[in-house]
Amino acid sequence: MQAFLITFGKMIEILGMLLIGFMLRKWNMLPEQTPKVLSGLTAKLFMPSLVFMAMLRNCTPANLTENAPLVLYGGGIAVLCFLLSYPVAVLFERKNQVLKHQYRYSTAVPNSGAAGLPLAIALGGSAMLFQMNLFNLMLSVITYSWGIMQLIPGGKGGFKASLRRLVNPVLGGLALGMVLGLFGGEQWIPAPIQNLADSMGNCYVLAAVLLTGYTIAGFDLRETLKDVKIYLFAVVRLLLIPLALLGLCWLIKAPTIVTVLAVLVYAGPCGMNPVIFATEHGVDNKKVAGLLLVSMPLATVTIPLLYALTIEVTGWVPPVG
User: Fold this and answer.
1) Where are the domains of the chain?
2) Which of 138, 239, 251, 312 could anchor a disulfide with 75, C-beta 3.0 to 4.6 Å?
3) What whole-number distance in Å separates Cα of residue 303 and Cα of residue 241?
C-alpha cells in the first residue's frame, strides 16, 4: 500500500501540473507562442541540464562498471518493443499509413519523460536518474532515428537525416556529463556552474507537464474520444506492455533494478511527439491527440498500481522516499 501511495502522490502532482497547463490555455492567460517557447526550453535547456548533472554526479568509473548491464538490458527491451510495434500497429490500423506509423511509435516509445523520469527522481534521486539514463540509451537512439522517421510523412530525410537527429542537446548533455563524471568533474567544476545547471534541470518536470496540458487544451476532441480504439490502445500502452515486461524480467531472473526501470519507463503514457509532428507536417493529429489525452490521466492510476505490483514481485526498496 505504501508503494502505491508514494507513486500515486507523485502522479497526482503531475496531473495537477497538467490541469494547470490545460486551464492556462482555456482561459487564454498566455500568448500564442507559449508552446513553442516551452518546448524549446524543455528540449534544449532544462532536460539537457537535468541529465548532465545526473551523469556528472554519478558516472564514476566504479558506478559505470557496476551499472553497465543496464545498457544491455535496456537495449534488449527497447529492441523488443520496437519489433512488437509492427504487429501491434497492424492490429489498430491497416489502411492509413500515417496513422499506422503513429501507432508504431506510440507502442515502441513511451512518454517516460513526463512520468517515469519524475518518479525515478522522487524514488531514487540523481542516482536512479543516472541508472534510468543508462537503461534508456538504446531507447533514445531508436526514438531519435527510427521513431522520428515514423512521424514524418513519407520518411522525408532518410537514414542520414535520422542519424543527424542523434546530435541533439539531450544526448549531448548526457554524453558530456558522462565524460566529465568519469574524470571527477563534480570535484573541480565550480559550484556556481553546477548550481546553475541544477536550477535549470529542476525546471524540467514542471515545464514538460505544463506544455503537455497546454497542448491538449488546444484540441476539440469530442468526436475523437468516441473512438473505442483509443481506449483499447491505452490499455496496451499502460498495462499490457509493462505487465509483459514485468513477467519477462521475472522469467529471465533479471536484476531487480532492471525490472523496476522496465516497468517505470514502459508504463509511461503516449507522448507528445506524434502530436507535434502531425501538426508540423499538416496531417490529421486528432487520433494521437486523443491517445495523449486519454493515456495521461489514466497513467495517474495505472503507474502506481504497476509500481506496487513490481515492489511486491521484486521486494525492491527505493533508496529515497
Assistant:
1) 2-314
2) 138
3) 12
